[in-house]
Amino acid sequence: MADRPTEIFRAANSQHAQMLRQLLEERGIRSYVVNEIQTAGGELPLGWVAAPRILVAEEDAVKGRLIAEQFDAVLRDGRDIATEDFEFADANWTDWPNCPGCQQRREVRCNVCGSRGSKFSLADLIEEGGRTQVLLFCDTCDDHFRPQFFRTCHHCGHDFGSGITPEPVQQPIELPENTRRTWLVAAGLIAFAAAVCGYFYWLVTTRPN
To answer: CA 110 to CA 150: how far, in whole Å?
Structure first.
C-alpha cells in the first residue's frame, strides 16, 4: 500500500473476511486480509487474537468503515449479502459552514472524546424530523459524532453568536528546573547554617564558667 495500512474490521471467520474484501474491491477500495486462520468449525473462539482483520489504506479508512458497518449489520440481521446495497456517502462534507470573516472552516468538537478541529470526515447524513443531521467521523476515538460548533472562529476570532465556548486551559505553575535547583541549594545552605549556629550556641551555653 502507498499509504499506512489501517484496520477497519475484524471478521468472525475467513469467509466473512473475504466477502467484505470483495465488496470493498468492487467499490474501488483496495483491501487486505491478515491473520486468516480457519478452524474446523469455521468460527474462531470469542476474543481470539488472530481473527481475520481487514486493512485498507489510511485515506480509504472512513469509506471502508462505513461499508464494513453496513456489512456487519446485514450479517447480524441474517439478510442475504447478495441482495443488499453497500454504499457510502461522500467522505467530504461539502456543506461545512465557513467563517464570514476569514472564509476558514468553522471548528467543531467531538462530543465523544473532546477532540476539536475542522477536517473531520463525513460519516453519514441522517434524515430526522424533516431535517438532515450530519454525522462526522473522529479518528481519535474511532467513533461517529454530531458536530458541536464553537462560538468563535479559531482563526480570526469572529463571533458567530451561538455555539460552545471553549473552556480556558489552566496549566499548573511550574518553576523551571534551574529555579527549583537554586531554591533547593539555598534551602540546604540555610539548614546547614542553622545547624552550625545551633552547634556553636550549644558550645557557648554548656561551657563551664
So the answer is: 11
Domain edges within the chain: 1-88, 90-168
Is the domain spanning 1-88 CATH 3.30.70.1530? The answer is: yes
Q: What is the pLDDT of residue 177?
A: 58
Q: For residues 203 and 208, what is the distance between their CA atoms, to the nearest angstrom?
A: 10
Measured CA to CA, the distance from residue 73 to residue 89 in angstroms comes to 17
Torsion of CA 182, 188, 193, 194, to 10 degrees: 130
Does this model's pTM top 0.90?
Answer: no
**Is residue 141 a contact partner of residue 110, using CB atoms and an 8 Å limit?**
yes
Q: Which residues pair with 10 in a beta bridge?
A: 53
What cell numbers appear for 1 in the block? Answer: 500500500
Strand order in the sheet with 5-10: 5-10, 53-57, 31-34
